[in-house]
Design a protein that fits this description.
By secondary structure, the chain is mainly α. The protein has 14 helices and no strands.
């Protein structure tokens, strides 16, 4: 039953990505898109990919800082291998990488899985906090532009948005809100304690997670290295986004602030449940570039090049790292068999 659920979840996630990808590119002739790809300036794309690999390596080094206090001194090369396998696994199924990454280190260096999972949770908390800060910064820097763009898209161009203010729609919203309030009251009465409800528990755990993360970094010996790696990782994410602007005439004139906006909105595409951000990233990046009046063809071409180049790099480097992991694992097993044989003699 569990395997069936995982399979159905995969089908749903990949379907979401494929549908969004089709909606984004269905009106663009393949010949025109291919011509845009061939004419792109690949110097900037390759530079962005090189910087991306530096960020992935830094992520592995940052993870080492969380593993070392557990009593395990892992080689940076091995955590880098685990990180790249993580990214490659996420292309197959969202969040699969968060499972595969600790398994790799468990197999190569015998670190207990439960301890490794704890370190990954801490990483996720800090990355989420960083994304929130960057999103707020992007909104502050580009507030008027973002506000005008949203107003233009929702009010001036969308008849559906205008219909939201009809009496019928407002009545439906009022009924839904009333039903939610009644449901919350019933839940509270039936449980006897609202604090036992799963929704409350989930929110409480998230708040506790933030508090634990902040507390962890305060007590960490190498906390400034951890902060430094976190800032560097997100700087590489930013440069990966911004440098690709220069590969296309349609985006080459965009500002530094535009790079931050595309980064934060594009990141939402990777958070959405689609393998490797397929479809969801393309849609998010197109909407972000629309804020800067980049024509749809140019925005779609940028999203395709930025996403495809990163995905191809992850597949190639991830596959090499997987082969190295397989070799290390096989070598470790052979050494264990040799030691056991020697002891038996």
């Amino acid at each position: 039953m569990k395997k069936l659920f995982s399979f159905l979840r995969f089908i749903i996630f990949i379907s979401i990505g494929i549908i969004l990808f089709w909606l984004v590119y269905k009106d663009i002739p393949m010949k025109e898109m291919w011509q845009g790809i061939k004419n792109a300036n690949y110097f900037w794309i390759i530079l962005a990919l090189f910087i991306a690999l530096l960020g992935h390596y830094s992520r592995g080094r940052r993870w080492n800082l969380l593993i070392k206090p557990l009593g395990y001194d892992i080689k940076p090369s091995r955590t880098f291998i685990a990180v790249m396998i993580n990214y490659m696994a996420n292309l197959a199924l969202p969040r699969m990488g968060e499972v595969s990454r600790p398994i790799v280190i468990n197999r190569t260096d015998k670190v207990p899985l439960d301890k490794l999972i704890g370190t990954i949770i801490i990483e996720r908390i800090f990355d989420f906090m960083t994304l929130v800060v960057l999103t707020l910064l992007a909104v502050v820097l580009q507030y008027k532009l973002i506000k005008d763009s949203i107003y233009h898209a929702l009010v001036l161009q969308s008849d559906k948005f205008k219909s939201l203010f009809s009496l019928k729609t407002l009545l439906i919203i009022a009924i839904v809100v009333a039903l939610l309030i009644i449901l919350l009251v019933l839940i509270k009465k039936s449980d006897g304690d609202f604090k036992k409800h799963p929704v409350y528990i989930k929110i409480r755990d998230v708040v506790k997670g933030f508090y634990t993360g902040i507390k962890t970094i305060k007590t960490m010996k190498n906390k400034w290295q951890f902060v430094g790696h976190t800032l560097f990782i997100w700087l590489t994410y930013y440069l990966m986004t911004y440098l690709v602007f220069f590969s296309l005439p349609e985006t080459s004139q965009l500002s530094l602030a535009a790079g931050l906006v595309v980064l934060t909105i594009g990141s939402l595409g990777f958070i959405m449940p689609s393998p490797g951000g397929i479809g969801t990233y393309h849609f998010a990046a197109e909407q972000a570039l629309g804020i800067y009046q980049v024509d749809k063809e140019g925005a779609k071409l940028y999203a395709l090049i930025a996403h495809s180049s990163q995905t191809l790099t992850i597949i190639i480097v991830g596959a090499v790292c997987f082969l190295i992991f397989y070799y290390i694992q096989k070598k470790s097993k052979n050494e264990s068999l040799t030691e056991n044989s020697a002891e038996n003699l």
